[in-house]
Amino acid sequence: MGATGWPGLGPAGAAAACRRLGRGLGVAVRCLTVIPWPAEATGAAGGPPSCSDLAVGAWAFPLVGAAVGLAGAAGVAAGAALAGPLAGAALGLLGAALLTGGLHWDGVADTADGLWSGLPRKAALEVMRDPRLGALGGLGLGLGLLLTCGLWAAAAGPRAWLLLPAAGAAGRAAIVLAGWRHRYARTGPGMGAGLAGLVSGR
Known about the structure:
There is one protein chain. The longest helix is centred in the N-terminal third of the chain and has 23 residues, at 10-32. The protein is 71% helix and 0% strand. The chain has helices spanning 10-32, 51-57, 61-83, 85-100, 103-115, 121-129, 135-154, 160-181, 191-200. Helix 2 crosses helix 9 and helix 8 crosses helix 9 (191-200). The two termini are 37 Å apart. The protein is mostly helical.
């Protein structure tokens, strides 16, 4: 790279690219975890990332997912060493949920409430928007936790250090892929609308 910056960019272009990468990473961290990240570093004034911020940080979603999976693997290893694979899986899930603020599990419950309700599309979306947990959401959440705990227990051991970060990266990449492939389900504003529109260009 030398004193002239990145090839083809020059010092100013390289600095701008580094700032954009850092902003994207910060947006992904703030969106997908509870880790404090200075709002100024993401170009935001505070609060959750905006729709446009999410598109800037989309490239880093898999990277953050891998880090969450790595934290989960550490919990699995620690718990398995103390009390066996099942305890390891439970500890790993707890650690990952604390790190993400339970964001993905909240989504699982909302999705189950809406999709299993049998209601028309508009009514199902309103059910998913309701912050209260319904019976179907509780069922979906419980089944998801049991399934994940069983899979993580089966992965306990050295392979957890590979499988769980890979699963975390794949899961967060799926968010970006869905934003690129599908239109936003709602007609009103929302963070998902910004991600879908800016990633896919639709």
